[in-house]
Design brief:
This protein is mainly alpha-helical. It contains ten helices and no strands. It starts with 11 loop residues before the first helix and ends with a helix.
Length: 192
């Protein structure tokens, strides 16, 4: 369980986030202490406290930074017409956002119980409901609503399910996006 070298980021706050997320993913949120984060950073606990008072503060800041593109996407989607092209663009942009936030989503996948008990769990759930509202039509049949929900679920679970499958990560991401887009297109075709 050695330390992975990190490129030095200009910002101490970002370095703390990187190391904390690495430790949270390696040994779990509950089993990681602020002391361990400080030791891995080679700083005192007091120096760490200057930036973050608790592990949850670190996690909330990570969540806010890495999910900012998702918030921007939701805002953008609400300003667009409810067309198939808009829905496809939402999925494409969401796929890009997920790629950038992979470490956070890996943490969330591997620490589901902790996430449910923290404030970010409710916030994430709210974002997913917003995205679902953007890609499904209110008058759609139940089957088509399931298709739309499945498109988002595919984007989330696909990256984890394909993690052990050999191949280029970008090709895997594109395959997941293609399947998700097909689901949305099918739902839209049935309910124009």
């Amino acid at each position: 369980m050695g330390s992975t070298p990190h490129p030095r980021r200009a910002n101490t706050r970002q370095r703390i986030q990187d190391i904390a997320l690495e430790l949270f993913a390696e040994q779990g949120y509950e089993k990681t202490s602020l002391r361990e984060i400080a030791e891995r950073l080679d700083v005192t606990k007091a120096a760490l406290y200057y930036h973050f008072k608790t592990k949850e503060d670190i996690l909330i800041s990570l969540f806010q930074d890495l999910t900012r593109p998702i918030d921007e996407l939701i805002t953008w989607g609400r300003s667009r017409p409810h067309t198939l092209e808009t829905k496809q663009e939402i999925l494409r942009r969401y796929s890009e956002a997920l790629k950038e936030a992979t470490p956070l989503f890996r943490f969330m996948q591997e620490n589901q119980a902790a996430v449910r008990d923290l404030s970010i769990g409710e916030t994430f759930k709210s974002r997913m409901i917003d995205l679902m509202d953007l890609i499904q039509d209110p008058e759609a049949s139940l089957t088509d609503r399931v298709r739309c929900i499945s498109a988002l679920v595919t984007m989330h679970t696909g990256q984890f399910a394909l993690r052990e499958v050999e191949g280029d990560p970008e090709e895997k991401r594109q395959a997941i996006l293609e399947v998700s887009t097909e689901l949305i297109s099918r739902a839209h075709r049935v309910n124009p």
